[in-house]
Specification:
- The chain is mainly β.
- Helices cover 13% and strands 36% of the residues.
- It contains 13 helices and 55 strands.
- The strands form 13 sheets. The chain has an 8-stranded mixed sheet with strand order 46-47-49-48-50-51-54-55, sandwiched between helices. Strands 21, 22, 23, 24 and 25 form a 5-stranded antiparallel sheet that branches.
- Helix 5 packs across helix 6.
- The longest helix is centred in the C-terminal third of the chain and has 20 residues.
- The chain is globular.
Amino acid sequence: MIGLKKVILTFCVYLIGVGGMGNVWASNKTIRDFHEFELWHKLLQYGLSPSGEWAMWRIQAAEKTDTLFVRHIASGKEYKYKNTSAPEFSKDSHWIVFSEPAGENAAAGIAYQVKLVCLANGEEQIFRGMESFTFTNDSKYLILKGINAGGAVELNLYDLEKKRVKNIANIQEYTVDPTGKYLAYTLKTEKGLSNSLEVLELNDYRLLFLENDKNGYEKLKWTDHGLLFMKVLSDSTGQKQGREIHVVRNIGNRQQVCCFAAEAWADFPANMKISEYYTPQWSADGKKLFFGIAPKRYQGKSRAEVTADVDIWHWKDQEIQSRQKNRYYLNRSRTYLCVWWPEENRWRQLADSSLFDIAGISADGAFVLAVDDRPYRPHYRELHRDIYVIQTETGKRTRLLENTILSASFSREGKYVYYFKNKNWWAYDLAKEEYINLTAQVTTGLSDIYYDGPIDIAPSFGIAGWLKEDKAFWFYDEYDIWSVEPATLKLKRLTRGREDKITFRKFQRGVLTPGCNLLLRATGDDGASGIYRFDPKGHHRPLLYGPFGTLRLEQSADKKTNLLGWADNITAPELFVCDENLNRLQQLTHTNLRPPGFIFRKSELIRYKNSRGKELKGALFYPVNYREGQSYPMIVHIYERLSQHLNDFVFPSASDLYNTMNYVLQGYFVFQPDITYEVNRPGESAVDCVTAAVRQVLKREDIDPARLGLIGHSWGAYQTAYIITQTPLFAAAVAGAPLTDMISMYNSIYWESGRSNQEMFETGQARFRLPWWQISRQYICNSPVFQAENIQTPLLMIFGTEDQAVDWSQGLEMYITMRRLGKPCILLTYEGEGHTIGGQMNTLDQTGRVMDYFDYYLKKTVAADWILEGRTYLKKKGEE
């Protein structure tokens, strides 16, 4: 282990030294108020001031109570504030601002206020009724937006140096220029329409630009290319019909105004309008402005108005009615992309009804990517489409890929379009109109070997990005980062992870900049993880590496000061300040000093093989106050692959049914095995992998084979319900929202998206490549409800009656079948809840009931009445 070793050792000594409570959970004591779950302070967000002088973090001590800490790193000077949100440092690091509750003396209807703090002396300024805020880039002003005492939307401009406030009432939108000198905003009338646009010089509040129009303005945006806004238009009936685009440049100097109005162009389609649904955007050089047009629509009553409220589901529908309803607002707001050259006073329509789905615009605006799936509709499986490149200068369309399920993107500078095809990365040179196989020389596989879905084409391992000027493309194999120059095809392996089974990936988000400031994330085959410093010469240096879960870094502008958040499975996230090499660690938080009398033991990686010889892993978590020689019950939690959570710390939560720490604190082992799948055999694959994993774990003597529980949610719940039809290994099982009948599930709707479940079955998680009528035996053999006669394990199912992913009728099918078979089955249904139970009382209820259920079957505690006898509806209503 590299780095933090001393800190971790100190913490472990502390844990071992506080074992006064003994094996508190060994008794039959039932804990259902969950106070014992509030054992740790919880580190929430954290950040550094741009200068690196100040650190801020929020700590949650108990539910819904937290404290914001702001500390000067060098001196230790510290400020504390209760129950804050959205803290933000100014760019010059002299100020911090945040939202906080308004308090008892707040005006009616105003729940929050904004507090500004001068970091030098702690002086505070409070702005009541403000809801959003931001500093200008030059750190001279704080801009706040909220509701004033009269109930109107108001903008407050606070001069940080002069300590004065300017109030602008009836504000709707605002934007600040990149220099922080000017503010543009729209004002609205009582009818809700913005009818004026103003530009204010912040230094002296002079009005530099003013427009008035009865219909108003919208979509203000100020970039280096000028102030951009849209003017609302209306027709003779007063209905909004389109927009005008305005660009104002050189405000405060020789002001220039450009306008794009549809009526000014003879070639602008008469039945179209400039769309309000597309926000105009500039090319990087500011020469081209992209905008959208859309058909005019009359918003009155339809001539074909009928009285019957009926939907017609037709077998020829390209999309079924539920999908059309789900996409109604998206479809009616569809726009056709256009480009405008303001300086040259010309424009071009790039998309139309024959090709309208835009996938991307190159950085220089020279090309546009578009996709067309219409030739391949309706879609029952993966989405097939044609991908086109459109040249903005001429409108020329070139079909790049035909009848493909692939996606494509522009390179960083827009010189290439790249995509993953036939197990290789390809680039299309836009200037030369040539296809280039970038990775033909790579001998290691680039397709994700862990993909076990039904689609024949496996995805790639991903990319790190493109270098400046598109000189090189960085991509991943299973372990390493590679670089290839598209111009010369010069290939280089940048890391050496394969030899040690360590996977390297880019750590920081954002633009790829190779150099000594580039950090790499390292993940070992044994579950260890860490951070390496990239060396252009290949001598990458580990800064931190060990059995860590959470590793998150916040850096100052010069990268010399860092905030490091780390955790492992028994250590809640702590915060440290350190230098650029993650040395000189100074601990800022102490979230792990609260638990009295609990001894934790590190998680363990379990390796096993399924019947096909596939090597798999599982994460085993020890019960609190574990004692050698004692036998414990174990809960097996399943989904797909969960072993990657080996070193993650999980905060116990009374509202989280599938929480590992909840069960650890109740004296259970928790095991999370990985599952890999064979197509058309999802349930059978789960049985194969899970039983192999459990057999491996049971080679230990500290787990009681007669006290095993199984739990899962959604897909994990399906596997839970299926596994108990094939093996008596488990003494109790809990399934939250399981699929139980694969045929009826195939023929149902995924209401969250409106799609038929056919796509999910034939291309996604269900992993059936063919429809049920072609392989009905496999569907039946892998359906829990059709195998229910074999069940020997008591089953508890949980559903929300408004589940939009797995309809609760799936639970009813299993419940009614098992009830008829005389097999122990309980179905909990929560009225109005969705795929996950979210109501506060309901989440507490389900967590408590599941604990009761497992304790009864695995610990032999006294059973609650509802487990043995259920509850009548009259009793629920208090009438029995």
